[in-house]
Design a protein that fits this description.
This is AcrR family transcriptional regulator. The chain is built from ten helices and no strands. It is elongated, with a radius of gyration of 23 Å. It starts with a helix and ends in a 15-residue tail after the last helix. It has two domains: 53 residues, Arc Repressor Mutant, subunit A (Orthogonal Bundle), CATH 1.10.10; 126 residues, Tetracycline Repressor, domain 2. 71% of the residues lie in helices and 0% in strands. By secondary structure, the chain is mainly alpha-helical.
């Protein structure tokens, strides 16, 4: 018997085809869900997602037993895609202040075009734990660049910038229908307050009223 005869048999063609079909179906569901969640928010009927992805409800539920499972997968994909783009944009920007302001612009513009993303952040206060840690670490990098360049107001912390991002995210949702550009005004006002031109000491974050 040759060594080729003793090797492990390859996977049968029929099984490989079924696995490929399953992977295509899963990818189609996630792709369609990303579009539908962005358009209609978290309350969308999963039957619409199944319809747009071209699969039956049974297939959808085999891959994602609950809508929350599907939503979590889609939100993590959206977050990873956004954060990757944000890192690339910051790396390509020499001016630290432009990198910081670009981060806020990019983050909020992304959220303004994704109802489910804003609804999820508003409901939970942040992305999923692992995603939030990655975001916060990136914000800290941007803050340190601005501090080293003498561009950031004394006393501004990473926690301040994270909270500002969260607050503006809620503004995106609150003004989406009535004044969709309002968040841009508030962002500019906020960024002006972060500038090192403002020398007045900041209040203690833990101080009472």
């Amino acid at each position: 018997m040759t060594s080729a005869d003793q090797s492990t048999p390859t996977q049968p063609p029929a099984r490989r085809a079924r696995r490929a079909d399953a992977e295509r179906n899963r990818a189609a569901i996630i792709e369609a869900a990303g579009v539908v969640f962005a358009e209609q928010g978290c309350a969308v009927d999963v039957r619409e997602i199944a319809r747009r992805s071209g699969v039956g409800m049974g297939t959808l539920y085999r891959h994602f037993p609950t809508k929350d499972d599907l939503l979590a997968t889609v939100m993590e994909r959206e977050f990873t895609s956004w954060l990757t783009a944000a890192h690339q944009a910051a790396a390509a920007t020499e001016d630290p202040w432009e990198a910081l302001t670009g981060f806020f612009e990019q983050a909020l513009t992304n959220q303004a075009h994704n109802r489910a993303l804003v609804e999820t952040y508003t409901a939970t206060g942040a992305p999923a734990h692992q995603c939030a840690r990655r975001r916060d670490a990136f914000i800290d990098e941007l803050r340190i660049r601005c501090v080293d360049a003498g561009l950031l107001r004394d006393g501004v912390t990473t926690a301040d910038l994270v909270l500002l991002s969260t607050s503006l995210s809620q503004t995106v949702q609150a003004t989406d229908d009535s004044h969709p550009g309002q968040w841009r005004r508030l962002l500019r006002i906020s960024l002006d307050g972060l500038s090192s031109r403002n020398a007045e000491p900041l209040p203690d974050a833990d101080a009472g009223t």
